[in-house]
Amino acid sequence: MFIRIGLRASARRTSCAAWMALAALALPMSGCQNFGDITGSIVSSDQPMPTDDAGLRSYAARWARAYDANPGEKVASINYARALRALTRYSEAESIMRVAAVKAPKDYDVLAAYGEALADGGDLAQAKDVLSRAYPLERPSWRVLSDQGTVEDRLGNYDAAQTFYRDALKIAPGEPSVLANLGLSYALTKQLALADDALREAAASPRSDARVRQNFALVLSLEGKFKEAEQVSERDMSPAEAARNVDSIKAMIAQNDTWKALQSAAPKGARRGAAPPLPGPTPVNGVDPG
């Protein structure tokens, strides 16, 4: 189920403008919106990756030493590249994972991390190809499916993206990072009511975090539900900060024609076309989800 959809130059320009407008305020959940932010590397280290700059640099230095001792080694490569991506050193992360992929060209974890690094660096065509080989067809990975969806979103292939997200949800029902990506994809296609549904479910999950809730607040603001957007934001910030956050979204909408286009969706509660229901735990490619 690897969908290849070509885009004319004009379509690429349009999808890029829409993507950049949404990405200006949306906080990525997984995949190339920015890859690995929630799910992290498939091969995890023995400690969580820090979120502050100093901690990230220390974490990166630790894995740099491990990598230098054995270039291309799987765990060191993935975690070092993961830290480099968090530090926005995308070309370095891509180089690290390229070495690992040459050393282990059929290792699914390595291919997944290489695809993420390629997408972070903007090489979407190669990222799409690498990610399509990052799991066995008979047992797909929900994380990689979600990553594939975000690549398709950035290419403007929204139907393909949403198919990937729904397939990921068959394996990981209710996974907030995938639901959030699906909601953002719906927003890009002006289906704000569907975006609201997906992000509302994501935000209600006990496994959601501030990024999920911030994206929900973003979509609520696009719908004109500013008071509710503030209430959602207040779960992670003070009331004054939440109000300023929503005000900043209002200003972005007012100043950006593409934001205005995204906002000109169906009336509240209406649907522009029917979307398939969010899937439950059903088999994928003939294999029961694990």
Outline type: globular
* Average of per-residue pLDDT values: 81
What name does CATH use for the topology of the largest domain? Answer: Serine Threonine Protein Phosphatase 5, Tetratricopeptide repeat
Task: Please report the first level of CATH classification, the CATH class of the largest domain.
Answer: Mainly Alpha
Taking the sheet with the most strands, its summary is:
none
Query: What is the tally of helical segments?
Result: 14
Q: Quickly give the structural class.
A: mainly alpha
Which architecture of the largest domain per CATH?
Alpha Horseshoe
Q: Would you count the extended β strands for me?
A: 0
In percent, how helical is the residue content?
Answer: 55-70%
Task: Note the beta-strand portion.
Answer: under 5%
Low-confidence stretches: 1-15, 30-46, 265-274, 280-290
Number of domains: 2
Polypeptide structure, described:
The chain is mostly helical and 290 residues long. It has 2 domains: 10-35 and 165-271, Serine Threonine Protein Phosphatase 5, Tetratricopeptide repeat (Alpha Horseshoe); 43-140, Tetratricopeptide repeat domain (Serine Threonine Protein Phosphatase 5, Tetratricopeptide repeat), CATH 1.25.40.10. It has 14 helices and no strands. It has helices spanning 9-23, 53-69, 74-86, 90-103, 108-120, 124-131, 142-155, 158-171, 176-188, 192-204, 210-222, 226-233, 239-255, 257-263. Helix 8 (158-171) runs antiparallel to helix 9 (176-188) and helix 9 runs antiparallel to helix 10 (192-204). The chain is globular and about 55 Å long. The two termini are 19 Å apart. The model is unreliable at 1-15, 30-46, 265-274 and 280-290 (pLDDT under 50).
